[in-house]
Amino acid sequence: MLPLLRAELARQHGDPDRTIAFAQQALVGLSENDQLVRSLVDWTLAVADWLGGRLVQAEHALVHIVAAQRAAGEHDLALSVFYELSLVRRARGRLDAARRTCQEALELATESGRSLPAAGAAHVGFAEVLRQRDELDAALDHATQSVALSRQLAYAQPLAAGLTTLAWIRHAQGDRTGALEAIREAERVQPDPGVVALLNPVPAQRARLLLANGQVAEAARWVRARGLAADDQPSYPREGEYLVLARVLLAEQTPDLALGLLGRLRDLAVAQERAGSLIEVQGLRALALAAAGDQAGALAALAEALALAAPEGYLRVFLDEGAPMATLLGKLAAATAKGQATAAGVSRPYLDRLLEAFDQAGLGILPRPRPGGVVVAGLVAPLSARELEVLGLLAAGVSNRAIAEQLVITLDTVKRHVTHILDKLGAANRTQAVTRARELGLLR
Known about the structure:
Layout: H1 2-12, H2 16-27, H3 35-51, H4 55-71, H5 75-91, H6 95-111, H7 120-132, H8 136-150, H9 156-172, H10 176-189, H11 202-212, H12 216-225, H13 239-251, H14 255-271, H15 275-291, H16 295-309, H17 316-319, H18 323-337, H19 348-360, H20 385-395, H21 400-407, H22 411-425, H23 430-439
Helix pairs in contact: 1-2, 1-3, 2-3, 3-4, 4-5, 5-6, 5-7, 6-7, 7-8, 7-9, 8-9, 9-10, 9-11, 10-11, 11-12, 11-13, 12-13, 13-14, 13-15, 14-15, 15-16, 16-18, 18-19, 20-22, 20-23, 21-22, 22-23
């Protein structure tokens, strides 16, 4: 078992080659009765492929391990492997496949009567897919279940992952204090900063939250403490840290330095066929190019990111970048409307959906007319198509709860729409909003 323990240490430090070497040593001398050890070695080798950026091989190996363990009735091990399979599929940009993996894990936990805590990892995988698609209420439900179940486990990774996802959901919902509380607890759960970022994303995610809250100096100190530099050759296991560095460089208004780093991250993601990474990297490259004054390059990079993101419904990867991304998306929407080459291949329905999500987050672009939206002189900001629907129901005297039922959306979403309508119309309440809308000709 000593070689297997050494393989685990190498894995935690992000060294795929040593992980493989030690795992293969562990196979020497095993008998046919040592099936559990052999399964653990196979699992370790699959994770080593993941660390090494060989995601297709890792996915195939993990699928095989899950099937073998289920056939052997080893459901606890199968449930653990399911979690890493979902991570690999998300890294490949396959959100639907990751969601199905988590659903299958939850069904296995229920059908086999296994302990519910083992389902915690499946819930956090579900939560992250839903969060990426901006389905925050459902994501919050799964993340909350994940944290509650994972607290019962001795293995810290699912709990730390659940708390990290919970932090970003709270941040997206405007609860910055709650977000920081969740990420601090995640740090206490998985405190070892020596574990590579791919397996322990908590420190990098905390630094990202600091940046999102405007604490650039503190995030920059963290980057320096980790020994990161703009001219490094980044590796996949430390990609999360280098993405934080790129954001720090952008916040410090040094886009040229960020572009060099992001170019190397892009090349690595392309070589390893990691679409999930490429979407995020190209989004950041677009922001860096825009900051450097290369408008055409920025729109082309963003268009590439959107083309990759659209089939799987990614939203939060763009939304979490805030106002700079909203501004750039507005420019891309204008280029798309004009049929410019830089916007070629961008799905208009997906772009409209993304712009609507920015509207709901209070980050609409001025002026930005688009199908179904209305720009009227005297408006603080244009009303989106959905906001016009809600406005019409407000004028009819329909309650928030009834609006939610009629439009098949959550009550919280209705409240956000109403808040945005009041802000855009410069109204203090629903009655003033309806009166103002009639004055502007928005209601018949």
